[in-house]
User: Fold these one by one.
Assistant:
Number 1:
Amino acid sequence: MTTMTAGGLPVDGATLHYQVRGQGPLLLLIPGGTGGAAAFDEIADGLAAEYTVATYDPRGLGRSTLDDPEAEQHVAEHAGDALRLLDLLSPDRPARVFGTSSGAIAALHLLTARPERVARLVAHEPPVVEVLPDAAEHRALIARVRETFRTQGLMPAMAVFAAGLKKDGDAAEPKTEPELRLPPQAAARAEQTMAGLPYFVGRIVPSFMSYAPDVRRLGELTDRLVLACGEDSRGELPYRPAALLAERFGTPLLHFPGGHTGLTTHPAEFGERLAEALRA
């Protein structure tokens, strides 16, 4: 196994817990949801054969503590955290970046705000629903999630959120395909995932899914932007923004194995596809 070192980075309003393994040009992996650095445990060692791989817990999740636990969260602030890590670990040359889900939203903001610091970005299913023609419907979904969380609690809010992400006409029940039989390491992370859900639903979802990216600026940066989706996500809400942007920019849409959580359900194949995308 590749040797890993860990550190703590003070940033404005928080302290980030990060991990570094491997050597070579920097690759920063930005997780989505509540996964934190551990979400990349099953692919980071393989990538560390080519890169210095940095993973971290986003502020407010896992071991990255907030100075004010009740602080509101903002995409620009999370992108700034990623920039601080780039400046710490690769101060003299731009880095490769991978982000998934909410982490991909932060990564898109990083790219538009500081493009000179990003050599290549692979953005996997960023749910930037404001770019969609039916964005108003998704604003209503976010409002329903917030109100349900406030009045009924976490699990009812999660049910509303999950139903809103599905394809039109899909039943609300969870899928039972084999891909959702999680690998042992992923199953062991369930406790951390549950612990972070109130913060994610209450503060990350409303802020991040209300974020409108600078589409014009992204269109000027397609030489270093790879938009990606899951093979099994077609038609679902997290798939649609990246697909729409790729079509608008006239760039290929890269497909990863699995669905929105393909990193968890298909880690080996996901890591291989990411390595290919970073080399291209």
Number 2:
Amino acid sequence: MRVDLFDFELPPERIALRPASPRDSARMLVVRPDGLGDRVVTDLPGQLRAGDMLVFNDTRVIPAQLEGRRGEARIGATLHKREGPREWRAFIRNAKRVREGDRIDFGEGVSAIAGDRASDGSMALVFEGEEPVELLLERAGRMPLPPYIAGKREADERDASDYQTMFAKEKGAVAAPTAALHFTPALMESLGAAGILHETLTLHVGAGTFLPVKAEDTDSHVMHSEWGRIEAATAERLNAARAEGGRIIPVGTTSLRLLESAADETGRLHPFEGDTAIFITPGYRFRVTDGLITNFHLPRSTLFMLVSALMGRERMQAAYAHAIGTGYRFYSYGDASLLLPRG
């Protein structure tokens, strides 16, 4: 499909620079086949049914942005996918000044040797020393805010907590599964009291999620792969909930993509551990997803293509026009939407 079919005008001021406080006070646009509803996130228990299953991503964002030097050249690195105990693939700023075998000093006793360059422009970095890389990043790294936020302000101490979900446990993401940022212990208690279930899986979100689609046709766009895991017991509980009539509603596109990667053509989920590069566009037949909670995405993005696949492109264009016209906040720190393709 033509990428320009997923374009729309988004005023820059609609991109949120800070999350709502408290988190569950954010607005929530409910999109159903019969129309739109303006709500807030705390209304969620009343919008779902007892037996529905929410699926959260428990990945934890690491401080994956580094600033360093190779000689006199200033070098920036955003890690995006782990390749080994000490090796990460990274997108490099000022990459023309870095060659394979060069040593980059990131300060605080943290350094890495540049490796091969991949076709997507990323470069391998092998961190020196014996300390776990996670400890090195805690010392020298910064939270990797999306470029649409980082271009307007510096990351600060607030982001260290603002950019983690309440479910964050498994270290390895360089971007947050931001739909889950809206959830609080109080909201989870209300959902539980309403009979709404939840499970967690792990997908380490990579920096590729920030990259714009530069191709003119979706067939020419290559998705970056990301590592994920669904435990066998989790898959069985999800299958049981669906067999009993509950809807599977991932919280965030990351959860949705991993669920769809782990489901067979009958809609049954299987244990999963490995990489997925699934790219969902209109025409895709969803195997296990019955709805989605997600934030508002950018024009021409793979994420807007995904929600268009779930709900229909014209319906989502109309929903986003309503959201822009009525002041909803977009992107990682923005408001939420609840998408229910069958009402």
Number 3:
Amino acid sequence: MTDTANTASPQIPGRRIEVLDLARGLALLAMASYHFSWDIEQFGYLDHGTTTHGLFKVYARSIAGGFLFLAGVSLMLAHSTGIRLQPFLKRLGMVAGAAALITLVTFFATPDTFIYFGILHAIAASSVIGLAFLRLPAVVTVLAGIGCIVLPLVFRADMFNPVWLHWVGLSTVPPRSNDYVPLMPWLGPFLIGMGAAKLSIATKFTERLANVKTGDNRLAGITRYFGRHSLAFYLLHQPVLLTLVWTTSQLAPPRPVDPLPGFVAECEAGCADGNSAEFCSRFCLCVTDELISQGMFDGFMAGEITPESDARIPAVAEQCTAASQMAAPE
């Protein structure tokens, strides 16, 4: 999402493309609105699981897909005539460095759900992979992108379950992370963006797009400004939002909530990628029952027990996965 969303400046010689700056700025504001909803859920102002289901889930995935699509467009626009190595490495270093910072901060803040492969990691990795597609025909790049989206829907394997392979996106056990954006399927919109940009360059659509003005009013100007400085916006918006929500919680605390429905909802949301609703319902009910019966539920919810610190957690996940698969209707 950042100069993230740009591994490259969205411009043609001598001119920025205002429409792309505006689109990126709008995507950032949409992201901030979703994160604000997520924040107030974490503080107890919304029922747990609200932002991981239904329209909220669609909204979040649309935002992530939009950022990656724009990142692919920007990479192609910047390097369509040849890889400009120094600018590419500079931007890649900024994105990868910001991704590492996010991982470090969240590891200490939320160790059981820290971000080890989020949107920034995905954009950095996709940018490197995208270099191999710069010279390929647009249709090949788009088809490869579609393939990345379809692959995790039809294929997953236990060999991708180790934590160090979760970034691929083909594991059968849903990982725990506050922002999980693996290459499969999210490399897909990035490559589709590259293909769309290549086609736009060939048809001179980008030149016409560069002539489109997005308005001189203050709101449009601020939105474009955010789009041009998206990395800074991404890094700063959550601390600002969390400070606002925390301050509000001190002045007007939320009502206490039962953690059980939220745990089940979050479990089902994390399970939904590549699994049926029936399987996820059985799996999450099994996990909940096992955690409660073994006296681990409260400790798990409090972060005192994690899959890394207690071998019983992954054992429960494996047991419930097998039981849920066996219970599947013929």
Number 4:
Amino acid sequence: MAKKRVSIKDIAKALGVSITTVSFIINGKAREQRISDEVSKKVKDYIKEVGYKPSHVAQSLRLGKSKIIVFMAEDISNQFFSSIARFIEEKAYRNGYKIIYCSTDNDVGKAKELISTFKMRNVDGFIITPTPDLEDVIKDLMEEEFPVVLFDRWLPDVDCSHVIVENKKSAFEGTDHLIKEGVKRPAFISLESDQTQMIDRETGFREAIQQSGVKGLELKLKFHNLAESGPYQELFEFFSKNRDIDGVFFATNYLAFEGLQALDSLGRNIPKDVKVVSFDDHYFFGLFKPKITAIEQPLETISEKLMETILNHIEELDKGYVSRKIILPNKLNIREST
């Protein structure tokens, strides 16, 4: 049986004080209302003891909507996230909302701190690319009745709305394309990650090579944020040791950028010696010689679905949270590298 949520009314009744008094203390207005330190301490101690969490619905009704939505990405400077951010900004503005942008750098500590800060500012909702180990924080947000939508990846243990793409299917199609173009020794370059989108891309690669019977290689690299040097050296060494690799599937475009540099340094000709496919298309891939085959995510559609979902949650705030799960198709853009 679900544990009953503690309300302000319950706290007031248990301590023998008025609901108004409890409300003033919770909202930091005790001194302004001349409530004694003794009463304030008694209420705060009890709140901590029973684990009370204020309802966002109640706050919204009391203070009004802030008309602000938080957009929390892994790295806002990354072209994928910045493009979605730009589309979302336009759609939010048309609906009377403003967006606050921030980057987590895939750091759970930073993500928790940012979410805590924005909760106190009574923002209307959160669009989040979740970091590892953020499940409890997302559950808390939902329990406090904040509208939340995840994107790029989802959390299997949390029944939360999300907008994602067909990662496994697209990775299978990209790998299958390499094999059909004659690749006998494909390599999959990815990140050390338990995140759903990376697991799905790895699964798609593995299923394609198992189905074809070729022998594949895999390399998983640590996540690098913008302030750190990229994995060029690790990729250079990997390709140096495995000269029989004749096809590469890069799980993200920034890994492809580093990998293409490494292959060029080794004098490996694309596509004669090595054929290349990357997840996350980028304008750079159309400028590179030869042009790089890549999987394009539907950025504008992702943005539309994110805004549509978060605005629906905000409008239905008093009806309770019902999750929406949206999965969108990608497009394989075949170019000269294959």
